[in-house]
Amino acid sequence: MRRAPALLSILAASVSLHAAPPSPAPAPAAPAATTPPPTKPAAKPADSKPAAPKSEAKTPAAPPVKPPPEDAYTQMEMLTRAMEMVRQNYVDESKITYAELVEGALEGMLHRLDPHCEYMGKSLFEDMQREQSDTSEGIGITIALRQNILTIITVREDGPASAAGVLSGDQLVRINDVLTDSVGVAEAMQLLQGKTGEEVRLTVRRPGTKQFLEFKVKHETLAETSVHDPMLLSSKMAGDYKIGYMRISQFNQPTAREMSKALDDLEKQGMKAFVLDLRNNPGGLVDSAVAVCGEFLPEGTVVVTTEGRVASQNPPPFRTPARNGKEPRKYPIAVLINQGSASASELTAGALQDLKRAIIVGTTSFGKGSVQTILPMKNGAAMRLTTAKYYTPSHRTIHEAGVEPNIISALTSEEELRIAKWRASHGTGEAAALELASLGDKQLERAVDSLKGVLVFDAFVAPALAPAAKPLENR
Q1: pTM here?
Q2: Biased composition, Low complexity: where in the chain (predicted)?
Q3: Residue 182 is a catalytic residue
């Protein structure tokens, strides 16, 4: 349904210009043409009547005229009249019930606010509530609207969509037989649902190659592991430096604990620098992301703040938790992000970047830094409404802007597909490290090079900062 543009009310202010009153004419007998006027009388006309304009100039300027407050009744009258015009003139009478028109108006109103706001009809809202209580059965993709196009943001490497060849950034054109040009995120999620073993057909457009591709994907029960491939990188990539690597696919409850244990193991092997891979991470629990930041930051450090329209209703900032008396890990860090890094993963990268604790490498992240609240309605439907925004420690919002890397490095579609296939099936231990070094992952290579530079710099600076040895006294 087309949405009528909002009525803009313009207040025009008229300004009257008044000329200064004329000076009194001189007496006829005065020889004005030959004799110059005395100084004192000449100053009087200038000081008497023009004095009013001088006093007006000293008065402070009037405050700017504010537009009149919005008249809700006038706008509702316009909406009601539009609905009646549609009901009287639209060709298909079955589509113009009041319920249909009001639901269409709600959909348009919320969609116009931002891509994350959405009206959910009664059946859609009920399905969403059931989905939250069920086990995780799906095809392993995360979707969102990007420039009003339904886009696959992340693809789980252990999911069936990844095995079929779907990539992050692919644009959804059709789900089974339903075109997605007029489908919202919640409705698309409903179309993608299914039980284990059921098949869904996806038609996508791949922006990198401009190809239209079709995939048949079967639903599977997906595991909830989130920490993958902790390892020391091969000397083929890291040289003589012991640089660790780990990937977080999403932030759930055990993520920080699993990561802490993996870091302990890598440190026992002599790790001196670390690459944290957050590419294609759709986010998850903000508390979990804050705890991950707490591995590298002092206890009580502000990582994220949440701000809505009413400051008094804002919750306390998210601070790094205690680590049972352990000091934060102090070795150099590089964080990998891309256009599939969203929400909690962006908050992690943004906080470590703001606090000068990590070098960010890759491409600009997705830009999902807002809080959505589900507001149930009396008719059984609900609204998903953006009610607050997240801010990094420097009070930077990532919403609709994303996190911009310190070092920009992009991959082609072919390179992304090669990396996705490796993630879905690869060796373990030293074999995995050798495979990763031979993969041609340019973003990882840039991150490793940056950490090498930091380690080389530290090696030069450390002796200079060490206290000089005292000379031996001659006896």
Answers
A1: 0.71
A2: 41-60
A3: no
